[in-house]
Structure formats: structure tokens, C-alpha cells
């Protein structure tokens, strides 16, 4: 009742005129009854859930609130998707038209070796002259190499022409490294934001390598054997052109020094990181080959792609969640913990394969993948803290080169294990061994991995 009265407007009563002599009348002030304070309004459950969601995604919302970050990220994702398409498309195109997986594998292996040699040189030029000035012509050369490979396959050119064409694709710039360099420049004074950005970039890598092979296989099998290579080259060129056009977030070119800059390989603490990346690449390479062989033995080879996608999905999800955590403690100790977690989870596929159950193996691959992204995120953060800004692209490309070399070695070791260890089930010991080797290297070089980065 009090609330009702308090809510009513209070209007003074009108004066009543009486036939008396006029006199001055002072009206009495009219005051409204006091209104009690309203009880606190509780937000609805939907609002509370939304509030928690905003808090949960706040680190990512904060980094993408910087002008220009969404534009260069979208363009870079478009340019990065072909990284998971080119090799698969080349194998399917060459094997489908020439009928030789050996020739297809040799061509791709040669291109991988050329990329490992040329990639750091391209990155050095990017550091010296800028992303837009070097990445665009380098991508044009790589796209022409893919187009040449497509034409050579289509018109039945000699085998040496296939090798020469695919070698030309080695000039493809490290698109992920260029994106990480932009984040490092934008948040050079904010380690927490760099951690979130590196986590997002690693999740993007996993997403592209998860979707790329699936898209390449669909294009090459549903349309033409050359369709995968053509689409990959077009996406790469379009994405790099759009990425290079975002000049507002491009890192400035460091001033030249009179002396010759020291190679990042000679920087203190970088060698242990590269060795760990090498062993981590061996985990990826052996896991892929052994999983394909396991599915083939059980008569479900088409399911191998989905099982490997689960491993990448686990890594992608873990990378995004890891980016929400605020890094604490020395970066070297965090890196050691991540490598130890990877070493502890990687034996799970071996245990699941011993049961012969495909669903159990799929779950084990999902869990095993959850430690790889945090390892790469922390490792890339360490690399950025130890590499001068003028050589950042070159340093990150060296890390990618170590990963590629490890993938090649792991693929060979996984194939050997499948043939010599009584089937693909026991061959899962190879990725577990590679993860243990990564932990051993990290622990043996623990002093070199200590960093002041937080």
C-alpha cells in the first residue's frame, strides 16, 4: 500500500473561494510520503549466462578490438587454408593421372625439402624489406609453380617437369608466421595479449590442417584431379593479396645495421626450442601414417581422415582454451610442463589400439591432441621473446622448418614401424617415443630454455 501511495503523483488540493474579505494566504507545503528504497533487481538467468560468456571470451574480444586485426586475420586464414591442401592435392592429382604413388610421394618430398631450404631465406627478405613488398611476389611465384604442375600433369609432361614445377612452390611465405609477427608488434608490451593471440594462431593452424585435406580430397575426387591444386593456388594468392593490403597493422621494417646480422640459429636458447619442434613434428608425422595404416587394416580407410580430424580438433579446442588462461610463472617452466603433458597423453593411442576398437582409438586421439597446441603456443611465445624484432619472421620460419623436417622423419619412422612391428597397432609406439624424446630434449636443455618472459 505504501509503495502504491508513493507511486501516485501528489497534487495539492485547489483552494476553495469563500465570500470573505480578501487576505493574503500562505499555502502550506505539501510533502509526499517517503518512498522506501526499491529492492535490488536480480538479472535473469539469461543475462547471467551472457555475462559469464562475455567474461570467458574477454581475452579474445580484447585483442580483436584493435582496429585492423579482424581484417588481416580473415585474409590470413584464407591464405593459410591451402597449406593443408597443396601436398594432398598434388599426391591425388599425380597418383590419379600417372598411377604412381611413388612418383607423387617423391615430388612432394622434393618440394618439402626445397621449402625447408628456401623458406628461411624468404622470411629473411620479409624481415628486411617488409611483408607487403616480399610476400606478394613470392606468392605469385609459388602460384605459378602450382599452375605449372597442374599443366604438366594435364598434358603428360616428363617426370622431371613435375619436380621442377613443385620446387617453385617453395617460395610460399610463412603466412602463419607473418600473422604472429603482426600480433607481436601490436602487443609488444602486453605479454598476456600476445599469449592469447598465439593461442588463437595455433588453433587456426590446427583448423586449417584439419579442413584443408578434407577440402582437397573432395575437390580432387568429386570434380577433377586438378581441381584441388587449382583452388588451393587461387586461395593462396587471393588471401596473401588481401593480407598484404592491410598496411595499418604491418610491422615496420627494422633499420639496417652496418654489420651482418647474426643468424637466429646462433641466438642463445633457440637451439633447444628447434630440437623440441623437430621431435614434435615427428609426433605429427608418425601419428598420421600409423592411423591411416590402422584404419586400412580394419577395412575402414576412409575413416582415417575423420580420426585424424579428431586429433586436430582436440588440439584446436585446447589451444583456444589455453588462450583464456593468464600465463603465470617463467615461460620456460610452462613450456616444460606442456611438453610433459604431451609425453603423458601420447601413449593413449597405443593403449587404445591394443584393444582393436576404432571408437576407443578415436577418443584417445582426441585426448592426445589436447597437449600439442599448448606446447606449440608456449614454444612460439618463447621463440618470440628470444628473437629480435628485425628477425622475427626468419626465427618463426626456422621453427616451421624444424616441424616439417620432424614430420618427414616421423612419417618415415611410422611407415617402418607399421612394416616391422607386427602391424599398425604396436606402431603407435613411434609417436609416444617421439613425445618422450621431446621431453628428454627439453629437460636436458632446461637451463637454456629458462626465460624472463612471463
TrEMBL record:
Keywords: Membrane, Transmembrane, Transmembrane helix. This is MFS transporter. Pfam families: MFS_1 (PF07690). Residues 27-49 are annotated as: Disordered. Residues 30-43 have a biased composition (Pro residues). Coiled coil: none annotated. It comes from the Bacteria. The keyword Ribonucleoprotein does not apply. It comes from Streptomyces halobius. Gene3D superfamilies: MFS general substrate transporter like domains (1.20.1250.20). The chain crosses the membrane at residues 101-122, 134-151, 230-249, 270-295, 307-325, 332-352, 358-383, 395-416, 428-444. The keyword Membrane applies.
Amino acid at each position: 500500500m505504501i509503495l502504491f501511495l508513493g507511486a501516485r503523483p501528489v497534487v495539492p488540493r485547489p483552494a476553495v473561494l469563500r465570500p470573505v474579505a480578501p487576505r493574503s494566504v500562505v499555502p502550506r507545503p505539501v510533502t509526499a510520503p517517503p518512498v522506501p528504497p526499491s529492492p535490488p533487481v536480480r538479472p535473469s538467468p539469461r543475462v547471467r549466462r551472457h555475462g559469464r560468456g562475455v567474461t570467458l571470451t574477454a581475452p579474445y574480444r580484447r585483442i580483436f578490438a584493435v582496429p585492423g586485426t579482424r581484417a588481416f586475420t580473415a585474409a590470413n586464414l584464407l591464405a593459410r587454408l591451402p597449406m593443408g591442401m597443396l601436398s594432398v592435392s598434388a599426391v591425388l592429382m599425380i597418383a590419379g593421372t600417372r598411377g604412381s604413388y611413388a612418383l607423387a610421394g617423391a615430388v612432394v618430398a622434393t618440394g618439402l625439402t626445397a621449402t625447408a631450404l628456401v623458406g628461411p631465406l624468404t622470411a629473411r627478405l620479409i624481415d628486411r624489406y617488409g611483408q607487403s613488398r616480399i610476400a606478394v611476389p613470392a606468392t605469385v611465384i609459388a602460384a605459378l609453380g602450382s599452375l605449372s604442375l597442374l599443366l604438366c600433369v594435364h598434358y603428360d609432361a616428363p617426370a622431371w617437369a613435375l619436380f621442377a614445377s613443385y620446387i617453385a612452390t617453395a617460395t610460399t611465405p610463412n603466412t602463419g608466421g607473418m600473422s604472429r609477427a603482426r600480433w607481436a608488434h601490436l602487443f609488444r608490451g602486453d605479454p598476456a595479449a600476445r599469449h592469447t593471440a598465439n593461442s588463437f594462431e595455433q588453433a587456426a593452424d590446427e583448423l586449417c590442417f584439419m579442413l584443408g585435406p578434407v577440402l582437397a580430397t573432395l575437390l580432387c575426387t568429386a570434380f577433377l584431379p586438378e581441381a584441388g591444386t587449382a583452388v588451393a593456388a587461387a586461395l593462396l594468392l587471393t588471401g596473401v593479396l588481401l593480407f598484404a593490403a592491410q598496411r595499418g597493422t604491418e610491422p615496420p621494417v627494422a633499420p639496417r645495421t652496418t654489420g651482418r646480422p647474426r643468424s637466429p640459429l646462433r641466438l642463445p636458447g633457440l637451439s633447444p626450442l628447434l630440437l623440441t619442434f623437430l621431435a614434435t613434428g615427428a609426433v605429427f608425422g608418425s601419428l598420421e601414417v600409423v592411423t591411416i595404416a590402422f584404419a586400412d587394416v580394419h577395412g575402414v580407410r576412409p575413416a582415417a581422415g575423420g580420426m585424424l580430424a579428431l586429433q586436430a580438433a582436440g588440439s584446436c579446442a585446447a589451444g583456444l582454451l589455453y588462450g583464456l588462461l593468464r600465463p603465470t610463472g617463467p615461460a620456460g617452466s610452462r613450456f616444460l610442463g606442456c611438453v610433459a603433458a604431451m609425453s603423458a597423453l601420447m601413449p593413449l593411442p597405443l593403449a587404445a589400439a591394443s584393444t582393436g576398437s576404432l571408437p576407443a582409438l578415436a577418443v584417445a586421439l582426441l585426448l592426445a591432441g589436447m597437449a600439442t597446441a599448448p606446447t606449440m603456443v608456449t614454444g612460439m611465445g618463447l621463440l618470440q621473446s628470444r628473437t629480435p624484432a628485425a628477425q622475427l619472421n626468419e626465427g618463426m620460419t626456422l621453427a616451421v622448418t624444424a616441424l616439417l623436417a620432424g614430420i618427414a622423419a616421423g612419417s618415415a619412422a611410422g611407415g617402418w614401424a607399421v612394416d616391422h612391428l607386427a602391424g599398425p597397432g604396436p606402431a603407435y609406439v613411434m609417436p609416444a617415443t617421439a613425445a618422450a624424446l621431446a621431453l628428454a630434449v627439453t629437460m636436458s636443455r632446461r637451463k637454456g630454455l629458462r626465460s624472463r618472459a612471463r
